[in-house]
TrEMBL record:
It comes from the Bacteria. It comes from Bradyrhizobium brasilense. Residues 144-209 form the HTH luxR-type domain. One of its GO terms (molecular function) is DNA binding. Residues 5-121 form the Response regulatory domain. Keywords: DNA-binding, Phosphoprotein. This is Response regulator transcription factor. InterPro entries: CheY-like_superfamily, EvgA-like, NreC/VraR/RcsB-like_REC, Sig_transdc_resp-reg_C-effctor, Sig_transdc_resp-reg_receiver, Tscrpt_reg_LuxR_C. GO terms for biological process: phosphorelay signal transduction system; regulation of DNA-templated transcription. Gene3D superfamilies: 3.40.50.2300. The modification 4-aspartylphosphate is found at residue 56. The lineage of its organism: Bacteria, Pseudomonadati, Pseudomonadota, Alphaproteobacteria, Hyphomicrobiales.
Amino acid sequence: MHFSRVVIASRYPVVLLGLNCLLEAERDFKVVARCNDIASCFKAIQSLAPDIAILDMSMPDISGQAMLEVANSGALGVRLVFLAASVEDRDLAMLAAAGACGVLLSEEEPETLLQTLRQVADGQKTLPPPSYEEAIPYAQTTIPEKYLAVLTDRERQIMRLVSEGLSNKEIGRRLKVADGTIKVHLHHIFRKLEISNRTVLATLAVSYSGPTGSPSVE
């Protein structure tokens, strides 16, 4: 029987123990590491290549950049799921940009939590999209509109799809091009806008959205 290998990261021992007991009681999950900070979680993902990593958003050292490093840690198959007591739309924008597959609320019933994890294990994304109105305040990076004007129509289209939380492969499927082509486009976008990651790109996309909540595309 196939089972999903899971890494759990939280600063709270009771959370680690609770999630460990819940998952180990199920035949389709196996906890391979319990970590109390992002650094140890990063190492566990690199060395163990789990299917799923559950990260508690209350950890003091968690950030958009840390999540991007986890997502790009070399374990390409790892699916990131975040645990939170509550989550705002601006958090969803950050999580989507970091490649998160879902968010677990600590108040959820165990059955609901397990159902979400099984959907993630099946390759589904359960992360709800941020709303346009709430996501705008999160964008702290300011870039003049003349910089955005240097983007091609295709690059603006990819920028919009990144803001929706799509991976390179998903964007490639949507646009019917190879995901390597999307990676090249993103490299050009980052260079033109003088930014370095998808988190900043997603927040910029929200900042310069049109009335419908998506970056203007001809």
